[in-house]
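Need tokens for this chain, all 207 residues.
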Amino acid sequence: PQGSFDLDLEIPRILKVDADDTHIDFRGKVSLKAHDMMVAGAAGALSGTLRGEGSYSTKAGLSSARMDLDAQHLTVHGKTVTDLKGGIGFVPDKRAWIAPNFVGTCYRGRVAGNLELRQIDGSAWQYMLAAGFHRVDLQGFLAAGKGAQVAETDYGSGIMDASLCLGARLGDDSSRVGSCRVDISDMRIGEVSPLSNFLSVLQLNEP
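Here are the structure tokens for all 207 residues:
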């Protein structure tokens, strides 16, 4: 991740368990300002606030953590979700970070889903993303991030409902697999394919 942020950190308790282990409880807030980061394997930017708390062992590492995300903007491949909210928890037995229910606004519609980031094979990580889009403005979605030189008439219009599943090992594009379903009502055909544009965001290929 790259970008500026403000950090407000509090350590309410430090407990010496034995000669080799100390438990440290923490809580705080991180304010991200147009923070560049990887989102489900793709370059993105995030502006918002993370509030959380947890416990760390100097012997065993992170033992528990819980965060709440309140993001004004999340942008991936030029597509933006606003007012994104959700809880994120660390599950030590699985060595995984899980966001079981995030919701946000996407081009006059709504998006909801879940994300899991799990450690595998020691140092490698993999993610699984499932999301659904409801009543998204198709023209706004397709035109986003394309620049003013592209006319709006190049894009179709309509109301889009879509679902997607996507997973991969981080840093290994060849492992990326996924599927999506797109339903469009009140559609007007444009020069740009809605399916190809949607898949380009996911870096998948049409069947």
